[in-house]
Amino acid sequence: MKSISFVGISTILLLAFIQCVSAHNVLLAPYGKQCFFENLKKNDELAISFQVGSRDPHNSEQYNIDFHILSPSGQVLLKKQELDHGDESVKAPTNGKYVYCFSNERSNRVDVDVSFNIHGVIYVDINDPKSDTLDYAIQRLSQLTNDVKAEQGYLVIRERTHRNTAESTNSRVKWWSVFQIIVVAANSIFQIYYLKRFFEVKSVV
Question: What is the pLDDT of residues 147-162, one digit of tens each?
């Protein structure tokens, strides 16, 4: 007699899917691109989330890149342009090597940094006897832990980029306000001086 185990419950909840994730950073050269690949089987899903920023912690400028995914036959499955962040996914129609590229080919920016996570959703047959084992549950728990860790790293970089942008905006507003105050003060002093001379009574001897 078999009792209902955590493994059985998790298998039902998963509905025949396992997910794994890895986090990476890449520095794009001016007018260059970086490509990577994943070996997928039919019905696997390749999901990629990325954030574009700068390795200079004081740089608040927002950069854009192009992104595309190619099938094993070289067909373009997905193509996006001028993105500062993204969360894209494709489902593999066939077995093979799928290539995804980050491109800076239309820009001469020298410090374009891309932080990205690869979420590989692997198709699993629910009738596979290995899906109802303790080893499977341990592997699944380990993968979920890695998911959380990678997502936290991605969010840290995204928060840093947005914080730099906000601080730069606040700094510009501050100095613009100071400039306005100086202009208003100078204008007031000029008006007082001009009106004083206008109403002066000059006597001729």
Answer: 777 677 767 777 777 7
Per the CB < 8 A criterion, the answer to whether 86 and 50 are in contact is yes
C-alpha–C-alpha distance, residues 150 and 116, integer Å:
9
> In angstroms, rounded to a whole number, what is the distance separating the alpha carbons of residues 110 and 65?
13
Nearest to 139 by CA among 3, 34, 7, 13: 7
Asked if the structure places residue 13 within a domain, the reply is yes
| Residue 69 in domain | yes
Q: Count structural domains, the chain.
A: 1
Contact 47, 121 (CB under 8 A): yes
Q: Which residues are 70's β-sheet partners?
A: 76, 99
pTM value > 0.90? no
Domain that holds residue 122: 6-160
What span, in angstroms and rounded, lies between the C-alpha atoms of 19 and 124? 10
Inter-residue contact 50 to 100 (CB < 8 Å): no
The tokens describing 117, both together, are 């996570």
Has residue 196 been placed in a domain? no
- In CATH, what number is assigned to the domain containing residue 79? 2.60.120.380
Between residues 169 and 138, the one the model is more confident about: 169
